[in-house]
Amino acid sequence: MSKIKNKHVYTFGNKEAEGNATMKNLLGGKGANLAEMNLIGVPVPPGFTINTDVCTLYYKEGRDQVVELIRKEVEAGVKNVENIMGTKFGDKENPCLLSVRSGARASMPGMMDTVLNLGLNDIAVEGITRRTGNERFAWDSYRRFVQMYGDVVMEMKPESKEDIDPFEEIIDKLKEEKKVNLDTDLSTDDLKELVKRFKTAVKAKTGKDFPDDPWEQLWGSIMAVFGSWMTERAIYYRKLNDIPDEWGTAVNVQAMVFGNMGQNSGTGVAFTRDAATGEDIFNGEYLIDAQGEDVVAGIRTPGQITKEGSIRWAALAKVSEEDRKSNFPSLEEVMPEIYKELDATQQKLEDHYTDMQDLEFTIQDGKLWLLQTRNGKRTCAAMVKIAMDMLDEGMINKKTALMRVEPNKLDELLHPVFDDNAIKKANVVAKGLPASPGAATGQIVFHADEAEEWAASEKKVILVRIETSPEDLKGMNVAEGILTARGGMTSHAAVVARGMGKCCVSGAGSIKIDYKARTLSCDGITFKEGDWISLNGSTGEVYEGKIQTTQPEMSGDFGKIMELANKTARMKVRTNADTPHDSQVARDFGAVGIGLCRTEHMFFGDGKIQAMREMILAEDEDGRRKALDILLPIQREDFEGIFEAMHDLPVTVRLLDPPLHEFVPHEEKGQQEMADLMGITLEGVKEKVENLSEINPMLGHRGCRLGNTYPEISEMQARAIIEAAMNLKAKGINTHPEIMIPLTGTIEEMKMQEDIVRTTAEKVFKEKGDRIDYLVGTMIEVPRAALTADEIATSAEFFSFGTNDLTQMTFGYSRDDAGKFLPVYLQKNILKVDPFQELDQTGVGQLVEMSVKKGRKTRPNIKLGICGEHGGDPSSVEFCHRVGLDYVSCSPFRVPIARLAAAQAVIRKKEEKKAKKTSKKHKKAKK
Amino acid sequence: MSKIKNKHVYTFGNKEAEGNATMKNLLGGKGANLAEMNLIGVPVPPGFTINTDVCTLYYKEGRDQVVELIRKEVEAGVKNVENIMGTKFGDKENPCLLSVRSGARASMPGMMDTVLNLGLNDIAVEGITRRTGNERFAWDSYRRFVQMYGDVVMEMKPESKEDIDPFEEIIDKLKEEKKVNLDTDLSTDDLKELVKRFKTAVKAKTGKDFPDDPWEQLWGSIMAVFGSWMTERAIYYRKLNDIPDEWGTAVNVQAMVFGNMGQNSGTGVAFTRDAATGEDIFNGEYLIDAQGEDVVAGIRTPGQITKEGSIRWAALAKVSEEDRKSNFPSLEEVMPEIYKELDATQQKLEDHYTDMQDLEFTIQDGKLWLLQTRNGKRTCAAMVKIAMDMLDEGMINKKTALMRVEPNKLDELLHPVFDDNAIKKANVVAKGLPASPGAATGQIVFHADEAEEWAASEKKVILVRIETSPEDLKGMNVAEGILTARGGMTSHAAVVARGMGKCCVSGAGSIKIDYKARTLSCDGITFKEGDWISLNGSTGEVYEGKIQTTQPEMSGDFGKIMELANKTARMKVRTNADTPHDSQVARDFGAVGIGLCRTEHMFFGDGKIQAMREMILAEDEDGRRKALDILLPIQREDFEGIFEAMHDLPVTVRLLDPPLHEFVPHEEKGQQEMADLMGITLEGVKEKVENLSEINPMLGHRGCRLGNTYPEISEMQARAIIEAAMNLKAKGINTHPEIMIPLTGTIEEMKMQEDIVRTTAEKVFKEKGDRIDYLVGTMIEVPRAALTADEIATSAEFFSFGTNDLTQMTFGYSRDDAGKFLPVYLQKNILKVDPFQELDQTGVGQLVEMSVKKGRKTRPNIKLGICGEHGGDPSSVEFCHRVGLDYVSCSPFRVPIARLAAAQAVIRKKEEKKAKKTSKKHKKAKK
Questions:
Q1: Buried b (16+ CB within 10 A) or exposed e, B465-490
Q2: Among candidates B96, B100, B150, which has minimal Cα distance to B120?
Q3: Contact criterion met (CB below 8 Å) for A306 and A290
Q4: Which residues in A lie closer than 8 A to residue B808 (C-beta atoms)?
Q5: A179-188 pLDDT tens trace
Q6: ipTM greater than 0.85, yes or no?
């Protein structure tokens, strides 16, 4: 293997290659595929790839060391290109021109630098003129090269944002002098003049001569590509896309081919299947006499590659068949032979890669060259359809089909989206966090109760709040979407909205909300109550005005892939839901139980909140019991609804968790109301409310600390649960209640709560003369619970990991306040990901794993699940599978995602195991 | 050993015994010593001890099973008493009378039940009359027995708190009928009448006949003693004194001896040394013709046992020698023979037990009986003196001397206390937590700045606040003591006060403070500003008015025991201090470094706080840097002072930790001041302040999150530290700075801070052309830091366990808010101890141990210490020793405690090791 280590440059060309498709880590995606295409006989301009290790070395040891290290290999690579193409670097007769492109392991489109037409100088340009018989083309290529190289390698950038590009400035000046409008109006002499002026400008600004030596040009370009790996935008892109900085980029050096050498040349991009719908239709666009950028630039309207596509396009664009034929013919019609070769090639590539391919090609003077192939990006709908189609076609097996769908992408299929055309014209006025996906449009209201009123009169509203609290729940429920100025991805607004499957943008720090004036200001615009805005919960964007939304349809393939997932996954997927409606939604999405039914939301709403407040404000146990007597039938009824919706499936009900301060009225009006209701003074209410406030409510009087200081609350809740289950049993409906104690930190806390639950249940059984089965278990969300899980399992029949709180306490991050430093931490790379979104496997995960081991040691058949937000995050689901949980539970709209992720976890683990076995065998064989 | 398991009753008497002093766990302290006294030839009334296992069985299996189990053994025990005493149970001629007393492993004085004179009935009373020739004595004993048995066994208790004892009611009634005032005025016939009426009352109230059968009496009494183990007050006492419920009590049944049989009888208590001072003087009190209770009851003035003591007493009581001789003679004078025997016995007992003994004795008709011996309780001064004296006398070795001093007791020697006489008359008006020990008396002020003003004019003030914040620091420093309405043992007030060695009562929930009216209300009294109150920081009591305090003197023995401790301890003891004064105090107490020098306190005070606020309120880095430039010389000077005070010793300086919100002005006046100073609007300041507020500040933007989001702060602090050290070096003063990063949770956070510190240090070295040695390390106070200690140790050169925060996050308890549930948790036994006072070894300790292992694995020579409050708690210090920390750090006034605890930890571990070895040997031998 040591030989490989000293190899840094991999040549390819003429159906031979030193690399192949499996070497993406070393050669980058582009380089590996260029090699592979050669190996399967696809025509590719010859060249070589400098591997990613060299990039790493570049940052470790610097430019000079790297040049020394790879000089001979690069020289040999160039020689190979010259040999194949019959050209020569800097030659007067037949000069070798090269392209230099980046190519990382993962695609980072447009993020890094490219240099084309390299090798041109005052001598070579004559060679090109002679070879092509096209002096203008030769000088235009030269002009472009100087411009590109000047920009990329010699850093001829605009001085500031306001300044124009220095080369464009020169072009504009010359056009003015020549009194012409278009670049194409410039004569060959003008182009020569431009090259001269460009070089003069470079010298003036950088103090360096523009290099004429092709070798100097080549080294400059290669190093510039390595340098572009660490530009700000590249770093930012990688952060967004979870690409590690350590990967580095490869550099691909290839012979230039030109699509702009006349009517017998051209260029295009193509997809082997439809990237939007997944249909098995070869499609793409091309331009005659053009270079690659021109297709993307959109100055000329490209033609369709297939005739069928062209006809379809014309129908949509309302272009007559005559017009189409003459002005927008397909490649199939214009160059039937080339088309035939291209079609065969695309088929070959798709068959070879067994996935939908995204191709770039160039036709130079009647010869087809493939410049790139890669797995094509696609919509979720296409992802699902292509996977299932290829499975049906026998191209891939079930495992591969399952692995082809990105779980997180499924979200697209489940939420409304903005109409494509409408969104193009829309004006973004603010950006927050993409807290809960989907699109929403509505009129601004600032108060939850008013949201209810407006909604009642059939208005569509967006609830805009600085932050939300449980009091806002009903208003959130009727709103189309929620926008908050504060709070992260796991703020109250975000968590609740995701639970509801409702669009939410949270923590839009740049907006200013004035509750009194009822205005929302951002981006210089002041919106009033009733004004229309729109939210994209998948991107965090906030738009001015009303934007049409559409509800994507779920294809039949979606159901099939879910079925496949179910057959593969070991873990079950439950849902977090606390209404019959949400339960039903989740069940429809395939949830096989409720993993977290919060009971606190039930206390909000007419009649309930008053009784709840009376309970909280009561002077003593008697007072509390009186109020609890009112709450009991209400809770029972709530549970009956949920249990019925989830009949035959387990429902984990968590006893009261939040600090009581969240329930009491904080404004005088509500306080007076309670004073009147309870016949006490306003001051008395105020004092009680004040007494309940806490400095760190997250670590305060909440969870089972409530039930252990006021056992009568747990008693009431246990009774409501058991009575609800028994009432349903009497109606022949089967229930499986699992009663969950929140925030347990010591075995004594757990035992005391278990006692209350079991004693109460026995009482109810006696009263009703019947019994049901139920479990008592606990959340593991306090680090100490994880550390003492062996003790806690002596009482708890199940553990459910509350990884939201566990993450808060393990990191010591308040998710309500983390907005002050988390963004900086992510930006500075102190944190690779937001631990509230992806479970921190190193730290928090250790506690989860510890609990699993300790819990199972004490109680081998203990049920283990997760009900934190992470239960719907694919990477966290995979972790849960690996540590051996029995189920994950997530919000209804993430159930399909979790189901798929659970299936993929099984496949991935098996593959790892296989890989390990193989490597062991290899090691053995070596011995 | 199985034979022993079936043995439940251990007899003793006549210099023989089945038990001995080592069997305290089984026989209780009293029982073991009764046996032991027999073995060494001390006269003890014969009897037997029912072991503690039976108590456990009593609660597991119930009364009947227990009686069945031990019946034969108890019968044999009684027989043995009868044989030795020549008496017979229930006999008409010479009845056997018994006492039944509890006796747990640890002394629980007055907590459990006792029955005396058992065996009396209408027949036996005649026997006693005949034997003693004293009918009145016989019937008085009978009357007392019925009363005691009725109370203890038959539960003849007052119906409610307001009611009088039912027996006392009968006595009062008879006295009224007989028109007499004193019990002693009742005739023998009256006593007979009382017995009759008592029995009638028992029958009427309980429906049961009073038992005449001595056996029934005996079983009833034994079971009543077992039953009294679980009375509310016993449970409460055990909680207060950390005695486990599982221990159970033994029952001691003994032949009765009477000190009240005439002038040739008597009773007394004695100490082999002076329990207050530790002086080696036999001392005690006695009464002629009296029973044990009479000495304690204080109705008659007891005489002194020794003549020397009697003369001393007379001098103090201003009693003439003549008066003394005739009315208060010593036992030595009254019964010289008995005295001689007693003196020899006390000497024998002290020599035998090699500790100061607390004896109870009874003289019955000229014969001395010892009823009890135990190690005497003593003041801390006595504890230290006796230990050192006995060491000097060769009675005990160094290890034993060290183990004889309770570390926590040392506190008594270090703080002022209330004058004994003054405190007796004082009125307790409220009770809070004993947050910081000592006594304080002063005038009430409600604001820190006013405390400063008042103190400046030589007034003694008590600062009374709802809670304190860092802004109150200077006021706290000048106050005699601090009283807060809110906050626990580790609230700001408590922690700071302990650091200052200043008396503090925190969380006195019953007091109401009205800042506006400047009043403090409690217990129905309203105190105004300027009124006098007094605080006992060791008990949490708040007194009305001014109470004299005294400063206890430190004896030379204290120094000697500390020296001994130093020679024995492996761990070093450092201190938590952030002023030169505190550093010096701690150094005087033997601290060998600073383990935690907080830097935030330095920012309060004239001129500093404004610059700090400017820094916080600045718009951008430039603004912050400007303010930091002002702070730099101030910090540097602070560090110079501390480093100088701690010359040659290591000083761990923690970089800025608290959330910035704690520094900004919260009242408009201060906000306006900042607005003026900074030339911005009041609204601007208000908005900034508002933006800084957090929902859970404990888990918010603080610790190294500050230094990582605003690196310029860490930079300034690092520079101040390094520059201070270099300035001192220039003056020839040796320093060892250790720079500590707070609240680290990830290796990336640590690395980034380390980088800032090292880069800054190198800059300073370059500037000064010299270098110093310094360390960079971190607090381990976030659970994730403990879990990833192996990673963090790659950067950190030392760990200091911040167990306050680690406890908060591991339990999920906010120490500011825990007052709402912690007291209930302690009361309900959910928590055995407050985890903020004693390190939770099961949970938090796991994380500490894990960090130690992981940290040492990465960096074998990593320095490990603790700087949480637990560093001054003996049980936690022992834990630290066991897990292998290098040092503990605590507030200056706890340094001696920690030093002693560290020494004891070594001894205890060695003893455990020895015990293990021995038990291994035994096991081996058995094989």
A1: bebbbbbbbbbbbbbbbbbbbbbbbb
A2: B96
A3: no
A4: 699
A5: 988 877 889 9
A6: no
Inter-CA distances, A347 with A21, A354, A379, B684, Å: 17, 10, 21, 65
Q: Which A residues in the span 770-829 are in contact with B, Cβ-Cβ below 8 Å? A: 781-784, 787-788, 791, 805, 808-814, 816-818, 820-821, 824-825, 828-829
- Asked if A699 reaches chain B (Cβ–Cβ under 8 Å), the answer is yes
**What does the alpha-carbon distance between residue B259 and residue A694 come to, in Å, rounded to a whole number?**
61
Containing H/E element for A371? strand A367-375
Please report which helix (H) or strand (E) contains residue A506, including its range: strand A503-506
pLDDT attached to residue B477: 84
State the Cα–Cα distance between residues B753 and B706, nearest whole angstrom.
10
Strands A481-484, A503-506: pairing is parallel
Q: Do B746 and A831 touch (CB under 8 A)?
A: yes
pLDDT in tens, B365-399: 999 999 999 998 887 888 999 999 999 999 999 99
For helices B135-152 and B188-206, angle between their N-to-C axes, nearest 10 degrees: 20
> pLDDT category, B196, cuts 50, 70, 90?
very high
Q: Report the amino acid identity of residue A247.
A: W
A784·B810 Cβ contact <8 A: yes
Sign of CA dihedral A124, A127, A131, A133: positive
**Binning pLDDT at 50, 70 and 90, where does residue A553 land?**
low
The answer to whether the CB atoms of A810 and B808 lie below 8 A apart is no
CA dihedral A175, A176, A179, A184 (to 10 degrees): 10
Asked if B877 contacts B871 with a C-beta cutoff of 8 angstroms, the reply is yes
d(CA A862, CA B90): 62
What end-to-end distance do the CA atoms of chain A give, in Å? 15
Residue A623 structure tokens? 């007072």
What lies within 8 Å, CB to CB, of B326 at 6+ separation is none
List the single best residue of A510, A512, A683, A696 to mutate versus B (max B Cβ within 10 A): A696
Closest CA to B742 of B814, B663, B793, B802: B802
A660 to chain B, any CB pair closer than 8 A? The answer is: no
CB contacts of B709 in chain A (<8 Å) are 820-821, 824
| Residue A667, pLDDT score | 87
Interface probe with A: pick from B660, B747, B821, B831, most Cβ of A within 10 Å: B821
- Tell me the C-alpha distance between A35 and A47, whole Å: 9
Q: How many inter-chain contacts (A to B, CB under 8 Å) are there?
A: 176
Asked if A466 reaches chain B (Cβ–Cβ under 8 Å), the answer is no
What is the average pLDDT score of chain A? 91
Classified as helix, coil or strand, A804 is helix
Report how far Cα A494 is from the mean position of its chain's Cα atoms.
16
Rounded Cα gap, residues A197 and A809, in angstroms: 64
Angle (deg, nearest 10), helices A166-178 and A135-152? 150
Please name the member of A745, A817, A846 whose beta carbon is closest to the beta carbon of B694. Answer: A817
Give B852-903 pLDDT, tens digit per residue: 999 999 999 999 999 988 999 999 999 999 999 999 999 998 999 999 999 9
Pairing of strands A532-536, A525-528: unpaired
- Of B397, B618, B695, nearest to A695 by C-alpha is B695
- The model's pLDDT over B479-491, given as tens digits with 9 standing for 90+, comes to 999 999 987 776 7
In this prediction, residue A298 has a pLDDT band, given cuts at 50, 70 and 90, of low
Per the CB < 8 A criterion, the answer to whether A321 and A309 are in contact is: no
Please list, in sequence order, all residues whose beta carbon lies within 8 angstroms of the beta carbon of residue A900, skipping any fewer than 6 positions away.
A402, A405, A407, A410, A561, A562, A565, A874
> If DSSP codes are grouped into helix, strand and coil, which group holds residue B394?
coil
